[in-house]
């Protein structure tokens, strides 16, 4: 019998920002999740790789962002798995490695539109719960009423990593969109300039 319920928030976190932390915090406080893991993806099969910072820098930024919060954990598990990484493979691996944890996928509503393109999506729906948080302007999908899909009324976040990267490139002060330690790390490393 699983002893804890762990939400998995996958992302490139390029960089992690306050929007990610607000969603994770909402999930930890307003659902039945005991903790949230930030799973740093090496490369999303549905996205271009070019603008990604190296894996270890993105994992470092996640660790800096969450280091004082016991509800959160950073995971670089996908760095060690075959590339490109697929959610179903990661969930299967984590479930085998941590049999006392019940894993729940956390995803934005925008993901449901392309969910039928995910590897083994039927298996995902059959074996795992999926907690969906709202994203701007997302249409209804055929997965909205699936028994494994739960819509969570988290705050609507319009902040994105691409917006932050673009702001930094344009020499805007983006410090309040990021945890303080992440902002300092980006500044010191001259990332996204």
Q: How many strands, what sense, and barrel or not for the largest sheet?
A: 6 strands, parallel
Based on CA atoms alone, the radius of gyration comes out at 16 Å
Please, what is the CATH homologous superfamily? HUPs
Straight-line distance between termini? 49 Å
User: Please, how many helices?
Assistant: 7
Spatial order of strands in the largest sheet: 3-2-1-4-5-6
Percentage of residues in helical conformation:
25-40%
Text of the CATH class: Alpha Beta
Query: What is the CATH T-level topology?
Result: Rossmann fold
Low-confidence stretches: none
Please state the second-level CATH architecture: 3-Layer(aba) Sandwich
Q: Give helix and strand order, one letter per element, not per position.
A: EHEHEHEHHEEHH
Structural class: alpha/beta
Number of strands: 6
What's the short version?
By secondary structure, the protein is of the alpha/beta class. Helices cover 34% and strands 18% of the residues.
Write the layout of secondary structure elements.
Layout lengths: L3 E8 L6 H13 L4 E6 L14 H12 L5 E4 L11 H11 L3 E8 L1 H4 L7 H7 L1 E5 L15 E3 L9 H9 L10 H10 L4
Parallel strand pairs: 1-2, 1-4, 2-3, 4-5, 5-6
Helix pairs in contact: 2-7
């Amino acid at each position: 019998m699983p002893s804890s319920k762990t939400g998995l928030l996958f992302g490139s976190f390029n960089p992690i920002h306050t929007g990610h932390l607000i969603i994770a915090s909402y999930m930890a406080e307003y659902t039945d999740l005991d903790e949230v893991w930030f799973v740093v993806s090496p490369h999303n099969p549905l996205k271009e790789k070019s603008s990604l910072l190296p894996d270890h820098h993105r994992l470092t930024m996640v660790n800096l962002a969450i280091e004082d919060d016991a509800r959160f954990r950073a995971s670089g598990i996908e760095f060690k798995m075959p590339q490109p990484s697929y959610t179903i493979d990661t969930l299967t691996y984590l479930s085998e490695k941590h049999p006392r944890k019940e894993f729940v996928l956390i995803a934005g509503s925008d993901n449901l539109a392309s969910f039928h393109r995910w590897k083994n999506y039927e298996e995902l729906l059959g074996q795992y719960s999926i907690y969906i948080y709202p994203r701007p302007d997302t249409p209804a999908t055929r997965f909205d009423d699936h028994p494994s899909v739960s819509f969570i009324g988290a705050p609507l976040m319009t902040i994105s990593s691409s917006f932050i990267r673009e702001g930094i490139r344009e020499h805007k002060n983006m410090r309040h969109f990021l945890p303080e330690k992440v902002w300092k790390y980006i500044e010191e490393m001259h990332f996204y300039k």
